[in-house]
Amino acid sequence: MKKKRHVLLLEVLIALAIVTLCILPLLHPHVAILSEEKSFVREIELDRLVGLIHSDMLVEQFYRENIQWWTIEQDQPIEITDDRLDKLGFRGSYSFKRKLRKSKMEDGMYLHNLVSVIYAFTPTQGGDPLSYSYDLYVTRNIVGEKEDKDRSDNNDKSEKKNEQT
After folding, report:
1. Phi, psi of 38 (to 5 degrees)
2. In which element (H, E) is residue 100 found?
3. Taking burial as the number of CB atoms within 10 A of a residue's CB, which of 110, 119, 153, 165 is the most buried?
4. Does the pLDDT value for residue 139 go beyond 50?
5. What is the Cβ-side half-sphere exposure of residue 118, based on CA atoms within 13 angstroms?
6. Structural domain range at position 95
7. Helices marked H in the chain — which ranges?
8. Does residue 102 lie within any of the structural domains?
């Protein structure tokens, strides 16, 4: 009569290790594809967010004339404070660069400028920085600005005269 031989725990562990070693090379490409897909989706979300920030923040502020001209001429980066950027894991800033400048004399003195808005984003956890560039056409009325300044100066002078009398 033959004796039954039981499977030792060591044999089971060796078999499990061999199976795991055979499965790992099959899983590696899938894990790499998944991580690349996550980073790609993050960049697409950033791209969409940059478009929103550009239209909401800058174009609206230009339209309402909330951005001062000296801000454009300084050519220094301005930090973007948006919670949506923090959620994506990026820090960002924008700066202006004047590309083209033409003056035109008609009813007044107008300066026509082609201004490039450059967005720069750096990931908070390391990685390659990303940059986006948009061009804006900005017309500046020099005569209107001088008239506004003269009016405000005259108002200040008249207020001082009223205070003195």
Report:
1. -65, -45
2. strand 90-105
3. 119
4. yes
5. 13
6. 9-153
7. 9-53, 60-63, 69-74, 83-88, 142-164
8. yes
- Cα dihedral 60, 64, 65, 67 sign: negative
- In this structure, what token pair is assigned to residue 16? 């499990």
Read off the tokens for 105: 């004399």
In one letter, which amino acid is 40? F
Token look-up 């301005």 returns 78
Are 132 and 119 within 8 A, CB to CB? yes
Separation between Cα atoms, residue 152 and residue 149, nearest integer Å: 5
Residue 3 lies in a domain: no
- Is the pTM higher than 0.70? The answer reads no
In a domain, 2, yes or no: no
Looking at the domain assignment, is residue 164 inside a domain?
no
Count of structural domains, the chain: 1
The candidate with the shortest Cα–Cα distance to 110, out of 137, 75, 135, 136, is 137
User: pLDDT tens-digit profile of 75-133?
Assistant: 788 888 888 888 888 889 988 888 877 776 665 677 788 888 889 998 888 778 889 99
